[in-house]
Amino acid sequence: MLTILEVIRRTADFFEKRGVENPRLNAELIVAHVLGLSRMKLYLQFERPLGEKELAPIRELVRRRGRREPLAYVLGEAAFLDFTLKVDARVLVPRPETEQLVEIVRDTCAEGPPPRAILDLGTGSGAIAIALAAAFPEAAVTAVDAAGDALELAAANAAACGLGDGRIRFLESDWFAGIPGGERFDLIVSNPPYLTEAELAEAEPEVRDFEPRHALVAADGGCADLLGIIAAAAQWLAPGGRLFLETGIDQHARLIPAMKAAGFCSARSIQDWSGRDRFVAGAMAPAGV
């Protein structure tokens, strides 16, 4: 019988040959997931032999990861800030850049009155909506997505995170199209599609071959959805309301002028942790200004 350590070593070797990044870590996470152990407890049981009943599900997940299916899809979950979210092929895998987007929003909004009405455009797994609902417990949060199956997953994640109390309203909508007229928001946040076709073609197999294309790629050099959101957002923002967007790294020369043309009184680029232009933020003029 193979021990846990032998299975991890063989799996890591297999993943390395398949080009999987961090093969040992991936092997440990898969084995720990199947056995229901934390990584620390896994280390303490390295000499434990595994029977066929335990090896069979490990082999299946290893096979999937060896095809370069994203680890989050293989495990069925991904970490996002303080939350563990269910993820599958219906939605994008939450990324560190989007965690940073939420942190930027929280820090910026901490400088004034907290937002009372928040809109998450293209919610996917619900990551942004859930994190902002937790950060601003008095706010009413609306999360929209054009994909009904993504909304089902987002709603399930909200319930699992203790936010299934109606504080997050989930709407099937192509950006603003399905939002009742006359509503206004203090805060609009989105991580829309911003890759070009060429960028997707050059992406790792985990992204190119498995994640939903409609959530990744936009026309017009990756800017179509970003520009559409910017152009429409002003009519949906309350006085003093703010817009935050995650973007591609070569798009701000178009996006910042578009924000100013759309009526934002301020518009700025924000860099990600690696020093690249990754986010744009704009604000409407306060009431009476």
Question: Can you walk through the features of this model?
Answer:
Helix content is 41%, strand content 20%. With 289 residues, the chain is of the alpha/beta class. The protein has two domains: 2-67, Ubiquitin-associated (UBA) domain (Helicase, Ruva Protein, domain 3), CATH 1.10.8; 81-283, Rossmann fold (3-Layer(aba) Sandwich). Helix 6 runs parallel beside helix 7 (127-135). The chain is elongated, with a radius of gyration of 21 Å.
How are the elements arranged and paired?
Elements: E1 2-3, H1 4-17, H2 23-35, H3 39-43, E2 49-50, H4 52-66, H5 71-75, E3 77-80, E4 83-86, H6 96-109, E5 117-121, H7 127-135, E6 140-145, H8 148-160, E7 168-172, E8 185-190, H9 197-202, H10 205-208, H11 224-233, E9 237-246, H12 252-261, E10 266-271, E11 277-283
Parallel strand pairs: 5-6, 5-8, 6-7, 8-9
Antiparallel strand pairs: 1-2, 3-4, 9-11, 10-11
Helix pairs in contact: 1-2, 2-4, 6-7, 11-12
Pattern of helices and strands: EHHHEHHEEHEHEHEEHHHEHEE
Average pLDDT, rounded to a whole number, is: 97
Report the helical percentage. 40-55%
Q: Characterize the largest beta sheet: strand count, sense, and whether it forms a barrel.
A: 7 strands, mixed
Give the helix/strand class. alpha/beta
The percentage of residues in β strands lies in 15-25%
Strand order of the largest sheet: 7-6-5-8-9-11-10
Assigned CATH superfamily of the largest domain = Vaccinia Virus protein VP39
CATH topology of the largest domain, what is it called?
A: Rossmann fold
Number of domains: 2
Radius of gyration: 21 Å
- CATH C-level class of the largest domain is Alpha Beta
Number of strands: 11
Terminal CA distance reads: 75 Å
User: How many individual helices?
Assistant: 12
Shape: elongated
- Regions with little confidence, pLDDT below 50 for 5+ residues: none
